[in-house]
Amino acid sequence: NGERDHSEALGGPDAVEDASADGVADVADAGIAGSVLHTKGAPKRSAHVIRREHGRHQAWIRSLVRQHNAWFGRSTKTYQASIRAARRKHAKEVAAAKRQYHHKLKVLKIRRNRALKKLANRFRARNRRYQKGSKRRFSRALRRRGGRNRRSVRRKTRRRTRGRVLLSKMTKPRRNRVVGTLRGSKSYQVSFKIRPYGTRPGWSNVLHFMTSTRGGIRRIPAVWFYSRSTRLHIRAGRRGNHNDGCDPKKRLPKHKTTKVTIRVAHGRLDVFFNRKLVCRSRNYRHPTTPKKRVKVYVGDPWHRAAPARVSRVFYKHLGPVPGGARRRSGTKMIKHKLVPVRRNRFIGTIRASKGYQVSFKIRPHGTRPGRSNVLHFMTSTRGGIRRIPAVWFYSRSTRLHIRAGRRGNHNDGCDPKQRLPKHKTTKVTIRVAHGRLDVFFNRKLVCRSRNYRHPTTPKKRVKVYVGDPWHRAAPARVSRVFYKHLGPVMRRTRGRVGPRKMLGGMVRVRRNRFVGTVRATKSYQVSF
User: Fold this and answer.
1) In contact, 477 and 340? CB cutoff 8 Å
2) Where does residue 218 rank: exposed (0-12), middle (13-18), buried (19+ CB within 10 A)?
3) pLDDT tens-digit readout, 500-514
4) Long-range contacts for 415-421 (Cβ within 8 Å, ≥24 apart)?
């Protein structure tokens, strides 16, 4: 009865349970929070764990209240202090459970994001493999059909290979700015992207295709800006008028990129702005077709540069390229890979000609005492014709000693004063033509001799050595050895001699004009 009165004085056991109900409510709140978080992607067992903990804590609080009623019923202060300590302990456990739950949820989110990234990467890789496989399947299907629709595929690949990108990055035109050279054709297409940012008084040049700045073929094509305007002035030469062309009336917008396309084909000159036809001329049945290489200027040497930026300058051949096949057939690559020079290293044989050009790339890596051989062209190692041509290094130097035989002196030649840089690749070109021997380093003339009116012309096949049998090998590496015929190829004739063409085009008779030599026979015929 005393204990009952004591509990009633405190409010009874129901009041004690109500006092501890706050901790139970905290656990219930944690369970509600767990269920809410579970809806955002947490696994189902997390909410179940929270509910289970809630029940355990509720039972623990009730047992604790009963123990405190029995043990500390006589002391109100001790009883209230134990209740407060129980609440604090319970609050700490609930907060720890919440923290642990949120940490697990973060880990799960991170793992989910990583899994999604892996799935996306796998999808991209499978998509690439599928595209490659579809291309292979398409080509196999074409082969099975026996060539059906193969013509269109060939046409596309051929057009891609026949085009050439001259300028890719956005560049500002500047007076006398050369961006490259190319082979012109009868029908062509020039396209570029341009972004004007102002105007200037007078003509200002954007693009100019020409063979030479002195007396060459120009305006194939050329583009200018009108004075104080962004309107284009487009010229493209043709037979009878080198200054013909077509000027679109539409002006280019400032600070905006426009793709301009100029097409000369099928007797027409067409101009497009962003694939839209803006100008056409039907006078181009016979357009100008240069035979020499064409230089490309982004800003020619005679006009002020246009206030614009140009990029993606593209030249596409729509017709046959003059002189392309003839040059390819007259050139022979003897060695392609970079190889060290070695004594008595034989790399191939060729047919020699009266006029020729030998080019190769060389990278010296040291010097040697005495002359060391780099290249040697000869018919035979015993009693044959040698030094047609031959190249050595001077003693303890990278200076070249170049010999090329001629009538009256088999040891004539030309030695450049400039030395080759060590550990750097230099392209060396030796040209014997038009009565001269010219030597070039990276397309720059470094030596010339005018004694080669009658160079040595062997009739047998010529052997090529990268390091001859008599001298030490030069401390260098050689690659890209080319031999180009610049005159008729000499062959041994047996029996009857066929007709020989001495002069092709119409020329004026002039005193002491020499046109060639022939082998005479007992019976002959001359026509002209």
Assistant:
1) yes
2) buried
3) 677 767 888 988 888
4) 415/447, 416/441, 416/446, 416/447, 417/446, 417/447, 418/446, 420/362, 420/364, 421/364
DSSP 8-state class, residue 498: -
**How does residue 86 score in pLDDT terms, banded at 50, 70 and 90?**
confident
| Predicted TM-score (pTM) of this structure | 0.36
Closest CA to 471 of 359, 362, 395: 395
Six-digit token string for 118: 């892996």
Average pLDDT, the chain: 78
Q: Amino acid identity of 165?
A: V
Classify burial at 149, counting beta carbons within 10 Å of its beta carbon; exposed 0-12, middle 13-18, buried 19 or more. exposed
Quick count: other Cβ atoms within 10 Å of Cβ 510?
6
Tokens of 461: 């096949």
Are the C-beta atoms of residues 246 and 280 closer than 8 Å to each other?
A: yes
Cβ contact 429:357 at 8 Å: yes
Kindly provide the residue ranges of all beta strands, DSSP E only, lying in 343-404, ordered along the sequence: 346-351, 356-364, 372-378, 390-393, 400-403
- pLDDT for position 78: 62
